[in-house]
Amino acid sequence: MSLTPKLLAAVAAAAAAALCVPAAAPAQADPDQAVAGGGSLPPGWHARTERNAPLTNVKFAAMGDGFHVTLGPATIFWRDADTVSGNYHIVATFSQTTAPQHPEAYGLIMGGRNLADSTQSYTYFIIRTMPDKAEFSIRRRAGYAARPTAVVDWTANAAVKPADAAGKATNELSVLVSGGKATFYVNGTEVHSANAADVDVNGIVAYRVNHNLDVHLSALGIHKQ
Fold first, then answer.
1. Cβ of 142: how many Cβ atoms within 10 Å?
2. Distance in angstroms (rounded) separating the CA atoms of residues 25 and 80
3. Reported pTM
4. Chain centroid to CA 81: how far?
5. Is residue 149 part of a domain?
6. Mind listing the pLDDT tens digit for each residue in 132-165?
7. Nearest alpha-carbon partner for 200 in 129, 99, 122, 107
8. Is residue 219 assigned to a domain?
9. What is the domain-level CATH number for residue 175?
């Protein structure tokens, strides 16, 4: 069937209109949540968010002998005074208080350097817990914009306590640096040992909590050996 000039013009106009319609932006399935009361830190503390997100949706408040964190964006928290080198033992307890939408991680940072700028580097020892998932990972970051590399990728381990039906879980993470080794423990059980030269051991000790989590942190225990 041949098209009349009038019909051809209509088809051409429709095609041109379709080309002018902008593509719909992909929806972010898991955006950072809004957090009431965010934006300030206890004296002496610093924070750095992922993707330079504002601190507005970061709440980090002293509570008891530790701190309570409620997040939008994933964030690291540190004090310059918590710098250590040589042989030492670090320890902190993390209590996930609400169920995340999907597994999200939290834990310790060690060997932190230049945390406030683009050349930041550190090793982090993290866990993630759901009722059906209890895993740990050890990763290194070299540069704020760089993708972290896995020393140990996500690994299930019975030492990590899974979350209960309400999403709550409490786990103690610790690292012993001694004799050229860095040994990583969950609830007192060794889960990995590495040559100290293969991870970051000299620098700031800190916390890392991923986005949309609500976690209570004990005070950092830093003990020179």
1. 15
2. 41
3. 0.87
4. 22
5. yes
6. 999 999 999 999 999 999 999 999 999 999 999 9
7. 122
8. yes
9. 2.60.120.560
